[in-house]
């Protein structure tokens, strides 16, 4: 009897380990897609995470990842002139649930900070607080430094973004955002280098293509800027952001 019980317990533990491994693999696959920092990756991320949460409804890391994904995707939709508020609402819902499920998880607090960035419920002060909580809980996570940097103003001289990229040189979002911040500060050659690096990491990233073209144009390299964005459009002809970029470079300005 004791032997049978031991066998059953071992089988249960093995089954739980297999289940946990499958869940972690799905989360890793979702984060890999989200790391591309562009709409096709976000679409795949949401699909994976929704399936995961159907299997494990109270899995806080998946809720947190879904919140970040919805916010990033919503902002891209906003840039494209599409409806975005529903995405921001879903992001805040998932981030709030993540923190409730796992209040000591840095990723959950970071997700809440990210979700508070845009939309009807945007709250800059609370966003800063949540980004600080995430950083205090896990100062070795590059994404926590990245969100802290964004929450406190995107200053290209802030060592927080340098720290983020030291911890994870493949952080596409931080690489793009730093390129844009450097561009706005008039540091165009540096901006160009970061945006080219972003395209090495995520070759089809429409935002990086758009931003690089704008930097080239500011550098007085209008022909190269146009050729760059035309090449990106040839691969993704219906991309709203790229079409907008071409219109700007053609003298049409923003619609």
Order of helices and strands: HHHHHHHHHHHHH
Secondary structural class: mainly alpha
Distance between the termini: 76 Å
Backbone CA Rg = 21 Å
| Strand fraction | under 5%
Compute the average pLDDT.
Answer: 91
Name the assembly state: single chain
Estimated helix fraction: over 70%
* Number of helices, where a helix is a run of at least 4 consecutive DSSP H or I residues: 13
Q: What are the segments in which pLDDT stays under 50 over at least 5 consecutive residues?
A: 2-14
Overall, the morphology is globular
Count of DSSP strands:
0
Main β-sheet, in a few words?
none
Summarize the structure.
76% of the residues lie in helices and 0% in strands.
Can you describe this structure?
This protein has 255 residues and is an all-alpha fold. Helix content is 76%, strand content 0%. The chain has 13 helices and no strands. Helix 3 packs antiparallel against helix 4 (85-101), helix 6 (124-137) runs antiparallel to helix 7 (142-151) and helix 11 (206-218) packs antiparallel against helix 12. The longest helix is centred in the first third of the chain and has 33 residues, at 2-34.
């Amino acid at each position: 009897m004791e032997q049978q019980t031991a066998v059953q317990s071992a089988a249960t533990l093995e089954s739980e380990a297999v289940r946990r491994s499958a869940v972690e693999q799905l989360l890793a696959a979702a984060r890999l897609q989200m790391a591309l920092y562009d709409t096709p990756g976000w679409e795949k991320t949401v699909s994976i995470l929704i399936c995961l949460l159907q299997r494990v409804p109270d899995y806080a890391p998946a809720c947190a990842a879904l919140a970040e994904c919805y916010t990033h995707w919503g902002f891209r939709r906003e840039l494209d002139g599409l409806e975005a508020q529903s995405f921001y609402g879903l992001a805040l819902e998932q981030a709030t649930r993540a923190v409730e499920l796992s209040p000591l998880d840095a990723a959950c607090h970071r997700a809440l900070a990210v979700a508070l960035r845009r939309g009807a419920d945007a709250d800059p002060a609370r966003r800063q607080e949540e980004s600080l909580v995430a950083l205090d809980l896990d100062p070795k996570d590059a994404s926590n430094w990245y969100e802290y940097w964004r929450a406190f103003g995107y200053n290209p001289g802030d060592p927080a973004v340098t720290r983020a990229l030291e911890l994870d040189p493949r952080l596409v979002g931080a690489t793009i955002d730093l390129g844009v911040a450097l561009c706005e500060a008039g540091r165009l050659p540096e901006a160009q280098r970061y945006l080219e690096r972003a395209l090495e990491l995520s070759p089809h990233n429409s935002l990086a293509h758009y931003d690089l073209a704008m930097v080239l144009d500011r550098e007085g390299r209008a022909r190269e800027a146009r050729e760059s964005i035309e090449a990106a459009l040839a691969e993704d002809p219906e991309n709203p952001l790229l079409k907008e970029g071409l219109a700007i470079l053609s003298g049409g300005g923003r619609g």
